[in-house]
Backbone:
């Protein structure tokens, strides 16, 4: 394999993983605040459909992404309010929304099936794109890809380097302590869930306007579940989650190479592989015996601890602020 | 006497709290139809006739009712233990695969073959469910992700078998395998697509699970575990084994549903053999508030909506996903209204 091919592959992994990056960062923010938005698979389907439909009818990509973000925000708001105000189980509401949004996308998306439509245009950053190797990979893309990379570091900076970010961690870990310090826990949770949902919606539109152009029945094929698993795999850390998304994107492009190389293997193996991989990845990061294995030597433990993380202490629970 | 009246008022207020979500669901689906430029009244009439227009159509509703009931009672067991068995869809598929394997391999008279096929289906579903259970109990992989991943793997396996080793002579087609030998088919009532065996199977499952959850120590301990797994463990309940038993029994129900679809409805293995009934059963159980008695009625309503909406694209060029929209909307609004209700107390 020569350098140009490697560069082109890396560039395409970066581009194809962009929707997943938006989704995992959005969900990480939401879960950091304590709200599990399980509806991701439905939200991504519905926002991908709405994004494409709006772009198709109005020919405005800005409107398309805004509409998709609105869809994601509304779904997340339902999950958050049902938990905060109605004290309902986030998993139950999230799962119902997964199915409902999927069916809504099929029902309303019917007229747009297999219609040729707009896509996010390519836009190389002047000068930077001319840098050898790195320029081709990082700066010869489109605006959505640039935004996805900025978002990873912005989320990391916000969570770990700012005062409000510290509050965000506290409402997910120890809501009672945060409340005692004067933080309005439930309002903050709502805000982060909605922002997270909007980012997921943005990712959905990015999928239908950037990666797999257009709309078809169950267009995004389980990507929302993969995103939820990557959040766990990433240990609720934005950079590690993004790395997870890129590893996943990388494996997908490897598998498409493999598919042409091993034409005799049935295609179902390759379609099923991401989900089998998801189970194996979760098994690796959540297994107790590995924990024990690595705690033997201090160095191994440090490496292992940097590779996986624990969920926020109060994830998925209701906080009574009285 | 007094207890009797309070029970009656609670049923009345239960029904009252059901009317709100039902009316709002109808308003919203009607709006959705208007947005798509369809005549709502015509759409509802089409759905009604698609479900109840003839004896054949009604029997196809029962075809959907059977797996919905089987999966729902299975899910009641796992929910009682506090487990989200989303892998039920794949457990149905695995049941169908095991059933298809027996139906294709053994050349026996129907009286022996059909029980063997159903047993194989139950075994396939149970094994696949236990795999999700083992991942949960020993691997600490949340059952939602373990189960969901296994769903995709089971569906991939079914598709692989259909266009690979089990393909029809000469042509590899995703429409399904060669039909099974007639001895493997579940007998039907004359002229209909449904027969006595599957109906009895569903009813027996309902009764057995009702009494197992209500009247046995196992059921009570399962409930304790679902309410608070930590205190159940300290009380001496072997929670890991109980979780596995709940998974296994739910898998038996799902596997039976898959086998029944394979030999009772399609007479062959098709890629979409589970028909989404597993996921739909989760909605049935949520709407039944995790109790057994409402399940057969809700399952019947959902089966009618599912089968009725199949006629929509043919007659009115509306997507049949309207049925799913209606079911999902109803359950969402019901769950939300229950939240409002308990806040008002």
Residues:
């Amino acid at each position: 394999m020569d350098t140009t091919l490697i560069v082109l592959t890396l560039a395409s992994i970066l581009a194809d993983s962009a929707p997943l990056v938006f989704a995992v960062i959005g969900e990480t923010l939401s879960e950091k605040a304590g709200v599990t938005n399980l509806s991701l698979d439905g939200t991504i389907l519905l926002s991908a459909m709405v994004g494409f439909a709006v772009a198709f009818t109005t020919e405005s990509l800005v409107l398309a992404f805004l509409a998709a973000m609105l869809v994601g925000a509304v779904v997340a708001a339902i999950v958050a309010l049902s938990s905060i105000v109605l004290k309902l189980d986030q998993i139950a509401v999230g799962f119902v929304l997964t199915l409902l949004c999927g069916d809504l996308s099929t029902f309303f998306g019917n007229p747009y099936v297999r219609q040729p439509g707009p896509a996010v245009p390519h836009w190389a950053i002047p000068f930077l794109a001319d840098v050898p190797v790195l320029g081709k990979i990082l700066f010869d893309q489109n605006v959505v890809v640039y935004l996805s990379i900025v978002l990873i570091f912005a989320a990391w900076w916000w969570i770990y380097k700012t005062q409000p970010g510290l509050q965000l961690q506290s409402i997910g870990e120890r809501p009672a302590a945060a409340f005692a310090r004067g933080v309005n826990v439930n309002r903050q949770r709502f805000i982060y869930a909605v922002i997270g949902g909007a980012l997921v919606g943005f990712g959905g539109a990015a999928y239908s306007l950037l990666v797999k152009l257009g709309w078809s029945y169950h267009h995004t094929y389980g990507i929302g579940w993969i995103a939820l698993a990557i959040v766990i795999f990433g240990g609720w850390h934005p950079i590690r989650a993004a790395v997870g998304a890129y590893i996943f994107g990388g494996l997908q492009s490897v598998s498409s190479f493999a598919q042409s190389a091993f034409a005799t293997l049935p295609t179902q193996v390759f379609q099923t592989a991401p989900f089998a991989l998801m189970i194996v990845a979760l098994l690796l990061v959540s297994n107790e015996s590995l924990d024990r294995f690595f705690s033997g030597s201090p160095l191994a433990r440090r490496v292992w601890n940097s590779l996986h993380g624990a969920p926020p202490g109060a994830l998925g629970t209701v906080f009574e602020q009285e | 006497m007094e207890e009797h009246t309070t029970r009656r008022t609670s049923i009345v207020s239960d029904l009252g709290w059901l009317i709100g979500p039902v009316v709002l669901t109808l308003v919203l689906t009607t709006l959705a139809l208007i947005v798509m430029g369809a005549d709502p009244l015509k759409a509802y009439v089409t759905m009604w006739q698609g479900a109840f227009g003839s004896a054949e159509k009604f029997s196809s509703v029962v075809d959907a009712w059977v797996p919905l009931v089987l999966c729902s009672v299975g899910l009641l067991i796992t929910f009682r233990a506090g487990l989200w068995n989303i892998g039920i869809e794949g457990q149905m598929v695995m049941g169908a695969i095991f059933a298809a394997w027996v139906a294709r391999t053994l050349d026996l008279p129907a009286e022996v073959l059909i029980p063997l096929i159903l047993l194989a289906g139950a075994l396939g579903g149970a094994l696949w469910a236990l795999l999700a259970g083992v991942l949960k109990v020993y691997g600490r992989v949340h059952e939602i992700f373990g189960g969901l991943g296994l769903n995709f793997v089971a569906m991939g396996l079914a598709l692989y078998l259909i266009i690979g080793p089990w393909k029809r002579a000469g042509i590899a087609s995703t429409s399904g395998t060669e039909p099974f030998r007639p001895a493997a088919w579940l007998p039907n009532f004359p002229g209909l697509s449904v027969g006595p065996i599957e109906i009895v199977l569903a009813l027996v499952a309902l009764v057995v699970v009702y009494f197992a959850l209500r009247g046995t120590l196992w059921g009570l301990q399962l409930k304790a575990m679902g309410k608070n797994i930590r205190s159940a463990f300290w009380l001496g309940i072997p929670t890991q084994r109980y979780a596995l038993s709940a998974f296994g029994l739910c898998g038996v129900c799902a596997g039976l549903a898959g086998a029944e679809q394979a030999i009772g409805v399609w007479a062959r293995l098709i890629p979409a053999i589970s028909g989404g009934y597993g996921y739909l059963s989760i909605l049935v159980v949520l709407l039944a508030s995790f109790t057994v008695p409402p399940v057969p009625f809700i399952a019947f309503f959902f089966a009618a909506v599912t089968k009725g909406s199949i006629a929509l694209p043919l007659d009115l060029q509306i997507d049949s996903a309207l049925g799913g929209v209606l079911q999902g909307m109803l359950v969402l609004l019901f769950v939300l209204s229950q939240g409002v209700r308990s806040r008002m107390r």
